[in-house]
Amino acid sequence: MKKHVKGLVIFLVIFCMAAIVSAEDLTELEGTVSSINTISNTFVLNTEKGSLPISVRVMSRIMIDGERKPLAAVKSGSYAKGTYKNWNGKATVKEIVITAAK
Fold it and tell me: Looking at domain 27-99, what is its CATH homologous superfamily?
């Protein structure tokens, strides 16, 4: 019985550490959307710190009016807030919420 409990505790500790590490990789983003390119699945996010090229993957969640939408539904000038992760050297959207321009 002690072996099972010890194994379970070790598994839970490792699992929790992995969750913390993956959450640290995410960076918040906020700004105005411009230069949308639906062929290369990219757009530029104009932030207070400057322009940031953003990539969109199949697993990226783009939310507009509470519904998941494709990049083609995003309008230039819209306000965006969400998270991204550096993936293969590119800032890649994890989840982003699009609203009307501020």
Answer: Copper binding periplasmic protein CusF (2.40.50.320)
